[in-house]
């Protein structure tokens, strides 16, 4: 993982009791007194003083056009945990614009700034950071060491442009002609061979980290060769009995190599869960956390996708279900004019779920603990 660059200067979020001035610990490990006592400060003890709205806001990732990041200033000021940039050509002023945006965050808790810089047809800011080949092309023409070196260079430029997280690499196993409405992966995949996808995917991940960017491996437990593109419609992955021996293997390699964040697919997994993985406690809690032992940040794919909408889930309902099932951060998309009201409604839905007793406050606190850990923020540091 990568430490955030800004130092947190305020003493407490609005509406909380006074707390020690938070700052960032370079190692990412919460500082502790030599002898622990019942009164030892931890992120969890500080979060106990946060309001439900503050906790809810930190789990949300707000979509915004990279050409107009100022349009989500109100959402960042309200405490959104992340922003995700969309577009195909970033302005030269992006870094300055993002610094201004981050300055509006409460108590200096800057949001993750995310993008999809995968390579090939999925690049948001090649004009600023340079082009990357597709995963398929990298697998066919480059060694893992070469992939790592190239990605490190691009990641360094991304960090200079104000990006802190890349929603990449794709670890799904696929050899189709996509990405398209039928095949979500296609050339986004390193191929069908689990060992190749693992080696090249880990190299990509390590290149991002070396360049100062937090990587996000996706789409667990493996979206390759799915029945449809979940952006457009409900879909199923390969059967769980197949995924366990192939599709999951690159993720296991990434976890063993220290992957800090994983994104969950919106497809259902035959033989494992009848719900889309992104709202399934079986996938996120039983398999990912308990069986595979993943301790990092768990993020959903976009909960505005057809895979959720077409089975009756609004974004607020899907977000509550995802957090309850074990997700820590949630993605969604919306037209520019709808981002603000949708974000307000989604945060309110989380607060209402806790108030009604259908979502445990401890689950929300746990989610925010994972987010702060990924940001390498220690709320107790002086």
Nearest-integer average pLDDT: 91
Counting structural domains, the number is 1
SSE pattern, N- to C-terminal: EHHEHEHEHHHEHEEHHEEEHEHHEHHE
What's the total number of strands? 13
Strand content: 5-15%
Shape estimate: globular
Radius of gyration: 20 Å
CATH homologous superfamily assignment: Glycoside hydrolase, family 3, N-terminal domain
**What profile does the largest beta sheet have?**
9 strands, parallel
| The CATH C-level class name | Alpha Beta
Secondary structural class? alpha/beta
Could you tell me the CATH topology label.
TIM Barrel
Strand order of the largest sheet: 6-5-4-3-2-12-11-8-7
Q: Supply the number of helical segments.
A: 15
Helical fraction: 25-40%
Low-confidence stretches: 1-36
- End-to-end separation in angstroms reads 22 Å
Assigned CATH architecture? Alpha-Beta Barrel
Describe this structure in words.
This protein has 382 residues and is α/β, with parallel strands linked by helices. It has a single domain, classed as TIM Barrel (Alpha-Beta Barrel). The protein is built from 15 helices and 13 strands. The protein has a 9-stranded parallel sheet with strand order 6-5-4-3-2-12-11-8-7. Strand 5, helix 8 and strand 6 form a beta-alpha-beta unit. Helix 2 crosses helix 14, helix 7 runs parallel beside helix 8 and helix 13 packs across helix 14. It is globular. The N terminus is likely disordered.
């Amino acid at each position: 993982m990568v430490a955030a660059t800004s130092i947190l200067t305020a003493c407490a979020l609005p509406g909380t009791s006074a707390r020690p001035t938070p700052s960032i610990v370079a190692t990412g490990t919460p500082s502790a007194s030599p002898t622990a006592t019942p009164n030892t400060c931890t992120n969890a003890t500080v979060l106990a003083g946060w309001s439900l709205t503050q906790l809810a806001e930190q789990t949300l990732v707000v979509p915004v056009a990279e050409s107009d990041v100022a349009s989500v200033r109100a959402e960042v000021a309200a405490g959104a945990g992340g922003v995700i940039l969309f577009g195909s050509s970033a302005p030269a002023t992006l870094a300055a614009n993002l610094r201004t945006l981050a300055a509006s965050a409460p108590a200096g808790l800057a949001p993750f700034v995310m993008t999809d810089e995968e390579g090939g047809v999925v690049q948001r800011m090649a004009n600023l950071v340079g082009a990357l080949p597709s995963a398929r092309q990298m697998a066919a023409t480059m060694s893992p060491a070469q992939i790592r070196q190239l990605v490190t260079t691009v990641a360094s430029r991304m960090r200079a442009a104000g990006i802190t997280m890349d929603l990449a690499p794709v670890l799904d196993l696929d050899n189709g002609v996509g990405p398209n409405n039928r095949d979500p992966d296609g050339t986004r995949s390193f191929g069908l061979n689990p060992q190749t996808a693992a080696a090249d995917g880990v190299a990509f991940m390590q290149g991002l980290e070396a360049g100062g960017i937090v990587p996000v491996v996706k789409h667990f437990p493996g979206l390759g060769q799915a029945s449809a593109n979940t952006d457009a419609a409900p879909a199923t992955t390969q059967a769980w009995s197949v995924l366990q021996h192939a599709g999951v293997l690159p993720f296991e390699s990434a976890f063993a190599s220290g992957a800090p964040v994983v994104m969950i697919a919106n497809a259902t997994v035959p033989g494992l869960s009848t719900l889309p993985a992104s709202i399934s406690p079986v996938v996120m809690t039983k398999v990912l956390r308990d069986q595979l032992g993943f301790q990092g940040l768990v993020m959903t794919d976009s909960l505005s996708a057809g895979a959720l909408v077409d089975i009756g889930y609004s974004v607020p309902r899907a977000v509550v279900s995802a957090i309850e099932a074990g997700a820590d951060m949630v993605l969604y998309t919306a037209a520019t004019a709808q981002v603000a009201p949708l974000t307000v409604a989604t945060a309110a839905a989380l607060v209402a779920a806790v108030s009604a007793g259908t979502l445990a406050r401890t689950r929300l606190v746990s989610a925010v603990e994972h987010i702060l850990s990924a940001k390498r923020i220690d709320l107790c540091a002086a």
